[in-house]
Amino acid sequence: MVPKFKSTLFLSLCLAGVPLSAGDRSNATAQDASEVTTEAVSFSLKRGEVLQIIASDNREDGRQARLDYYAKVLPLAQAEGYRRLAQLNVRESVISDTQPDAFSFFAWPDEAAEKRFSQNPEWPAYKATRPEGWDELSIYTAKLTEDLSLTFSPDKYYTVVVAWPDAETGADYTRYLEGIEPAVTRAGGRFIAKIYNPRFEAHASPDEAPGQLTFVEWDSLDGFRKVQKMPEYLAHRDYFASGLDRFEFHWMELARF
C-alpha cells in the first residue's frame, strides 16, 4: 500500500523530483488492437453519461490473454453503448506503486447501460481472467454531473494526479490547486478535467477509491518544474501536504501506435 505522505518535507521532495524531461515509455500501449493515432483526438460527453478511465499495466506474457478478453467482452459492452474515446500513454510514473502503460478513456451512455452489462451472466467469468492479461487494471468510473469536452493533442503533454484527500483536511488540496492555477497558466499548463469521487476497482491494489483525478495539459515537459519556482506554488505547497493522505503522479502523451 502507498504510504501516507503526511510529511511536508517529504511531499515537497516528491514534487521537486518531477524531472525536467519525463522518461519515454510511449511505445507501450494498453489496447493491442488499437487504431493508429496521429491527429488530435476530441470527444464530448453529456451530463448523465458515465466516464470510465482505465489505467492498465500489461503483463509481458499476457498479449494473447488480452486479445481473448477483448474479443469476448467488447461485443457485450458495445451492445450496451460502450465506446472507446481516447488513450494517453504513460511516459513516466513519477510517484506510484503501479506502472501503468496507459490511461484509456471510455464511456457508457448511462448508469442503466453499465448495470445491464454487469448483470450479463457471462461477465463474471470474463472478469476473472483479467490477471492473465494485466498485472493491474485500475478502473475509475464516474457519472458526469456536467457536460465534458476534451481534446488531446499529439504536440502536448499531460499529467494526472490521482489523489486520496485527508478525511479531515482534504479541503487544503483544493486550496492548493486553486492557488497554483495562475502559475500553471504562466508555465504553459491548463487544468482540463477534474473527476471527483469516482468508483474504483482493481484486482491487485487496495480497493480504496481516490477522491479526485486531476488532468493538466502542458506545452512542454518542464512545465511543472517552472511552476515550482513561482510564488503561487511556494505559497501553497504546504496545502498539498496537509490535504492528502497519498497520491500518484503520471506524465502522459497521446497514444501513437
Describe this protein's structure.
With 257 residues, the protein is α+β, with helices and mostly antiparallel strands. The chain has a single domain (8-254), classed as Alpha-Beta Plaits. It is 30% helix and 34% strand. It contains eight helices and eleven strands. The protein has helices at 8-16, 63-78, 111-118, 123-127, 130-133, 171-186, 223-227, 231-243; strands at residues 41-45, 50-58, 83-95, 102-108, 134-143, 148-152, 157-165, 189-196, 199-201, 212-218, 244-254. The strands form two sheets. A nine-stranded antiparallel sheet has the order 8-10-7-11-3-4-2-5-9. The protein has a two-stranded antiparallel ribbon with strand order 1-6. A hairpin with a 6-residue loop joins strand 3 (83-95) and strand 4 (102-108). The longest helix is centred in the first third of the chain and has 16 residues, at 63-78.
CATH topology: Alpha-Beta Plaits
Q: Identify low-pLDDT runs.
A: 1-5, 17-21, 26-36
CATH class: Alpha Beta
Beta content: 25-35%
Rounded to the nearest angstrom, the distance between the terminal CA atoms is: 33 Å
The helix-strand sequence is: HEEHEEHHHEEEHEEEHHE
Strand count: 11
Radius of gyration: 18 Å
Second rung of CATH, namely the architecture: 2-Layer Sandwich
Portion of residues within helices:
25-40%
Give a brief outline of the structure:
By secondary structure, the chain is of the alpha+beta class.
Keywords, separated by commas or semicolons:
single chain, 257 residues, Alpha-Beta Plaits, two-stranded antiparallel ribbon, disordered N terminus
Describe the secondary structure blueprint for this structure.
Elements: H1 8-16, E1 41-45, E2 50-58, H2 63-78, E3 83-95, E4 102-108, H3 111-118, H4 123-127, H5 130-133, E5 134-143, E6 148-152, E7 157-165, H6 171-186, E8 189-196, E9 199-201, E10 212-218, H7 223-227, H8 231-243, E11 244-254
Antiparallel strand pairs: 1-6, 2-4, 2-5, 3-4, 3-11, 5-9, 7-10, 7-11, 8-10
